[in-house]
C-alpha cells in the first residue's frame, strides 16, 4: 500500500527543491517515484513531429524518489511520517505527529475503499 498517492500534497526533504511543496501528479510504483507539480523541473528539447508542433524547449517535471518527499498532513499542515491503521474495517493512513493523529484522506475522498 503506497504511502503517497496522486493528489496528495508533499514536501521535498532533500536536494535543490528542499522545503518546496506541491501536488503529486503521478505515482510511478514500479520505480518508487513520484512526479510533483512544480518540483524537479527539467528542460526538454522537443523536435517537431508535425507541421503544427514547433521545435523548442519545454519545461517538465522529472520524477523524484518517494523517499525524498514527505506527505503534508492536511490537518496539522506539517510534513509528517504516516502510518496505517484500521478504521471501520478499512486500512487508512494517519498522521504520526503525536499532537495530531488525523486520518489522512486520499484526494478522491476522506477514506479510500481498498483491498490492498
Ligand atoms: Zn497531522
UniProtKB/TrEMBL annotation:
<dbReference type="GO" id="GO:0006412">
    <property type="term" value="P:translation"/>
</dbReference>
<keyword id="KW-0687">Ribonucleoprotein</keyword>
<dbReference type="GO" id="GO:0005840">
    <property type="term" value="C:ribosome"/>
</dbReference>
<protein>
    <recommendedName>
        <fullName>Large ribosomal subunit protein uL24</fullName>
    </recommendedName>
</protein>
<dbReference type="Pfam" id="PF00467">
    <property type="entry name" value="KOW"/>
</dbReference>
<dbReference type="InterPro" id="IPR005824">
    <property type="entry name" value="KOW"/>
</dbReference>
<dbReference type="InterPro" id="IPR003256">
    <property type="entry name" value="Ribosomal_uL24"/>
</dbReference>
<dbReference type="InterPro" id="IPR005825">
    <property type="entry name" value="Ribosomal_uL24_CS"/>
</dbReference>
<comment type="function">
    <text>One of two assembly initiator proteins, it binds directly to the 5'-end of the 23S rRNA, where it nucleates assembly of the 50S subunit.</text>
</comment>
<keyword id="KW-0694">RNA-binding</keyword>
<dbReference type="InterPro" id="IPR008991">
    <property type="entry name" value="Translation_prot_SH3-like_sf"/>
</dbReference>
<dbReference type="InterPro" id="IPR057264">
    <property type="entry name" value="Ribosomal_uL24_C"/>
</dbReference>
<keyword id="KW-0699">rRNA-binding</keyword>
<comment type="subunit">
    <text>Part of the 50S ribosomal subunit.</text>
</comment>
<keyword id="KW-0689">Ribosomal protein</keyword>
<comment type="function">
    <text>One of the proteins that surrounds the polypeptide exit tunnel on the outside of the subunit.</text>
</comment>
<dbReference type="GO" id="GO:0019843">
    <property type="term" value="F:rRNA binding"/>
</dbReference>
<dbReference type="GO" id="GO:1990904">
    <property type="term" value="C:ribonucleoprotein complex"/>
</dbReference>
<dbReference type="InterPro" id="IPR041988">
    <property type="entry name" value="Ribosomal_uL24_KOW"/>
</dbReference>
<comment type="similarity">
    <text>Belongs to the universal ribosomal protein uL24 family.</text>
</comment>
<feature type="domain" description="KOW">
    <location>
        <begin position="3"/>
        <end position="30"/>
    </location>
</feature>
<dbReference type="Pfam" id="PF17136">
    <property type="entry name" value="ribosomal_L24"/>
</dbReference>
<dbReference type="InterPro" id="IPR014722">
    <property type="entry name" value="Rib_uL2_dom2"/>
</dbReference>
<dbReference type="GO" id="GO:0003735">
    <property type="term" value="F:structural constituent of ribosome"/>
</dbReference>
Amino acid at each position: 500500500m503506497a504511502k503517497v498517492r496522486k493528489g496528495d500534497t508533499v514536501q521535498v526533504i532533500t536536494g535543490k527543491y528542499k522545503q518546496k511543496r506541491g501536488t503529486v501528479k503521478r505515482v510511478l510504483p514500479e520505480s518508487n517515484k513520484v512526479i510533483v507539480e512544480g518540483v524537479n523541473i527539467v528542460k526538454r528539447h522537443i523536435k517537431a513531429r508535425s507541421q503544427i508542433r514547433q521545435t523548442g524547449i519545454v519545461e517538465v517535471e522529472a520524477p523524484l524518489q518517494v523517499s525524498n518527499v514527505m506527505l503534508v498532513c492536511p490537518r496539522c499542515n506539517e510534513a509528517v511520517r504516516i502510518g496505517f491503521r484500521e478504521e471501520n474495517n478499512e486500512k487508512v493512513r494517519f498522521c504520526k505527529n503525536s499532537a495530531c493523529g488525523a486520518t489522512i484522506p486520499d484526494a478522491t475522498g476522506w477514506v479510500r475503499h481498498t483491498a490492498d
